[in-house]
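Weekly sync notes, structure subgroup
Attendees: PM, AL, DS (notes)

Item 1: joint prediction request from the bench team. They want all two components modeled as one assembly rather than separately. Inputs as received:
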Amino acid sequence: MPNASLDENIKLFEDMFIDCGDFVSRKFPVGVNKDIWMYVAYIDMLVNRDTLENQVINQLMVFSWQTPPKPEILNDDPLTALIDSGVTTADISKVYDLQAAADAILSGDTILMADRSASILVVSTKGWPSRGISPTENEVVVQGSKDAFSESFRMNTMLIRRRIKDTKLKCKQLVVGERSKSSAALMYLEDLVRPEVLNEALRRIENIDIDGILDIGYIEQLTEDDWKSPFPMAQITERPDKASASILEGRIVVVTDNSPFVMIIPATLNTFFQSSEDYYQGWQIMSFIRLLRFAAGIMAVALPGLYIAVAVYHPSMIPLLLLFKMAGARQAVPFPAIFEILLMDLAFELLREAGIRLPRPVGNAIGVVGGLIIGQSAVEAGLVSPFVLIIVALTAIAGFAIPHIKLVSGFRLTKYIILLFSSVMGLLGFWIGSLLVLIHLVSLKSYGFPYLFPFVSGDVNGYSDMKDTLFRAPLFNMKKRPIFARPNHSERIHTNRPDASVKE
Amino acid sequence: MFSLNNKISIRQMQALLVLDIFGAGIVMLPRKAAKYAGQDAWLAIAAATAAAVLSVYLMTSAGRLYPRDSFVNLVSGLLSKPVGKFVGVLLSAKLLFNCAIELRLFGEILRQTMLPATPFAVVCAAMIAISAYAASKGYETRARIAQILFPLIFVPFTFLFVLGLFDVDLSNLLPVFATKPDKLLTGAIHAGTAFSGLELIMIAAPFAVRPYAVRRGMIQAVVFIGIFMIFITSVTIAKFGPGEVTRQLWPILDMMDLIDLPGAFIERQEALIMSFWIISNFAIVNSGLFFSSVLLKDVTGKGSHSLYILMCMPVVFAGSCFMLDVDQADHIIELVFYTLGIGFMIILPAVLLAAAALRKAGDARGKS
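Output from the run, pasted for the record:
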């Protein structure tokens, strides 16, 4: 609780901001006789100066005294009287200790103190420069909205609110990070979300005890179900339409300060193969693409291992003509097949990493140099066979076909397990490696939901979730919400498909 | 919703049971059935399936007496504690023995077809390790694995045999009903060994979310596997003829190898067939390890099931290292089936039901 003496409060308050060059404050008199002193403080560039000057300071210093408050009210509680007559913005609140006031101005608000007042006024003046709404960069679609989340917390919540104009859309705000004091929000539809999932998500986020949250990735890692798993337990997206669609499915979107990505929980393996575009275009083509993505997923994790198992241990499986060609191509290669695969695969990983770090035009050039020139040179030099080059390239392309990059990261790591077993025990090793990955996947859960749902335990929701897996059923046929929604609110389409034929 | 309570749905139980049964017995089934029943082998399998359904009925009736009790507690409650413990240990030993024999046969086939240079011990150790890992994850995880593996085995398997239908001589299955009843019965008894593992129902039943739906679900699973056996046996006999089939060691494997895959993208199918074999062997060994550990845990009343899995692993490994050829292994499988197998599948449930009737014991709903 601050003292009633303004000067003492100012001293205590400014002591907290010693050596903070971006701290701005001013003590100024107000009133007809200039006999009431006020104090304003904020952080430079975190506030909207227009709002601050026009709706707060200008009003207090000039216009409020055209119709001054009654002296008895002014004497009793000067701050309240000044707010009523001088502050023309609606978003205000009061705090009663200096630490809370300091937290407020660090979040972009402005504080006002007055003589003889035990409270401090916090005026919402957040208005730092931001890059605005940019187009999506990582989750590009042909058909669908182009806007992406940005680093602005409020802008991100607005992008979701703009899509779901329902009072049941809740935005439960929290502050996470001892020092960063980052804002975080859980956005969900209160009648759709499962209470046990919401409570668990809240519990996990509230239990985070860390000095700073600089990106949603911190929250993701600190709340995930199994930290040992290379597979993602939550979806990360930069697309507001995807986040909104998830909320409509009864899931929870976690938004945080300074991150152009939001987190969607719970998540299953199946959800990582879904893209927002899947629902904007016809079910036929999108079912085909979905199938292709799952095949790509299997290729991304298993193709190199399968190649080693078949080419080295069971060449009799390969058609004779192809086998001769493969043997001919490998004739000049001095290394074992496993070494060839590892060499090319690690070279590709290097290229990928270099391509990300470099500026885009140079990154493209690296792709050309790496992919074409080094690959061809390696084949001509007899370091690798062209078949290995094809296998590694196909594995990499398959990874790019999966819409969620974090799932691809999981596949990138687990493929080495299968590769290792295959290189030791052929097809038996391939299956042992694959079973190892499968056992791991089936034992995973995201907020209580089996990771491989609905491929396992699909009967819990009457197998209706299978309509959005390997194939995507026509929209009118997907009447039920996925398992994530409350069972008593599972219906999402209430009407049947309109009859297209018009009777005359 | 999806709590970790080690409870599984009937659908998951069905997938587990089918995978647990789908082992070495299946690939030898046409030989065994055709040896006694000739072209009427399918009738012998149908009779064996009917007997299996009867066994399921008996086992689930016994299980319904105390649906939430574990197998050891059920037997202990009705036949005294020492008997319950003895039966638990005996069944555990039988399951471990089954695992060892299955592994032995698996290793033999693998040595003949895919990995002639790889030592058996390596293959065996790898299979036991991966199976134990799955078993240690608990019943829910095992059930989910089964749900994934079930279509992975049965869809391509069925597809292959449907393709095989295009190149068969149906006259090999004629005349129908020409076999004498005694031969048919002998064929049915021998074909019944393919249902070895059915006794797992008694241990698994308390894990079901809806214990009273176990009977129906398990009968459906047994009928499914019976129909599947009849289908693949009939296609195999129609292809080779009953005489030729009785001379083959693994008629199903020979049949699969002869089927032409469209597009000829695979030169020889042995490796593909072995993929099915690896998965089914994994299912059987992890099931054996899991249920043995559960039984031993119930018998001792101490420790976690993972501890007992660790203890069972070397037992299975040592058992599988006994040098047996396929015929010897087959002989031992039959011997164990006719004694312990039938004992657990038919005699024990009948004794339990009789004991319950005498003592007027059991859950009211179960008895009704």
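Discussion: Chain B touches chain A at residues 1-3, 9, 11-12, 110, 114-115, 118, 122-123, 126-127, 130, 133-134, 137, 141, 143-145, 147-148, 264-272, 274-275, 278-279, 282 (CB under 8 Å).
Action: AL to compare against the crosslinking data before next sync.
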